[in-house]
Amino acid sequence: ACEAALCQAEDMTEETTGRKIVPDTAVIGVPARWLTVASQTFALRRPRPETKIEEGEVERVVSRAGRLAFQDVTTRRTNTATPLVVDASLVSLTVDGHRVTDPVGFRGGELGATVCVAAAPDEALSALRALAEALELEPPRLVAEPQAVARQLGRDGIVLDVGGATTGVFLMRYGRLLAADTMPLGGDGFSQSLAAVFNLTGRQVQALRRAYEEGLLAAEDAVQVQVALNDTIQSWLRAVEGCLARMAGADDLPHQIYLCGGGSRWPDVLDAARAHPWMQSLPFARYPQVQRLDPVQFPHPVNDTGRLWDVEESVALSLACWPTQLDEGPVERALATLRKGVLE
Length: 344
Known about the structure:
Shape: globular
Order of helices and strands: HEEHEEEHEHEEEHHHEHEHH
Number of domains: 1
CATH superfamily: ATPase, nucleotide binding domain
Strand order of the largest sheet: 9-8-7-10-11
């Protein structure tokens, strides 16, 4: 299936650019359900606050925060598989408690960094590398899907990636991933509720879903579908609340909630999320605004395919943009060391 999709994409490049592009390298996303994600902050007291901050200090602070985050990852894992760092990203830098973009040249008594680390079992990452080898590609760049989405979104927010069997819950600060979790309920659960209530096969459920989404059902039938879905959707929302409650720290949660993934296309999911009483149990400063994460909101890449992109493709498009977004400097040097697993 992967080889067929790759060949189809190569053929499409000939149609859109006039020449066939055959890649040698690949960016492969590591799904949220494989990941353990943790963020930690480390602050360094500077003995001479009057001196300018140097690159070496920034690199040391970022590296220390990353090591603390990885230690947190290892304590959170529930299985014995060896965790390897998939990616590490800088959430924020501060000087004397004030957030700055680049602290080099600033003066201050305390330099702080918050770093997010995503790790996955060694066996899972080896399987992805073996896949790239089977496709005759160079060793792939493995990227944590939640981090790719966060970088592409580029702002504070909460992303609910509603897949088939699971839903990924991603919390972003300053356009970077701060926390991520996965819950075992997605679009398949909505379909199963219809199958159970109406005694339908899988194919019949999909036909009913399409008719419901497109507004083709009679009013009475549409109400019956809505009632059948309601309990499962409410259970899903309560599970999302539980994830966010675990992620929430001292700060208020971002008030922008974005839905993506195939399961988010159910009309009732969006409507129920908008009507949900989020502020009753979660620290939102204002009532959340819920919308679908439309890929047209992304600044990259350029769409020359001749077809519209869908919410199902948000994660894949975020991965497609990843190679163009790597920075340079002391922060990236420290993060690159973490990615290589040099954590001593």
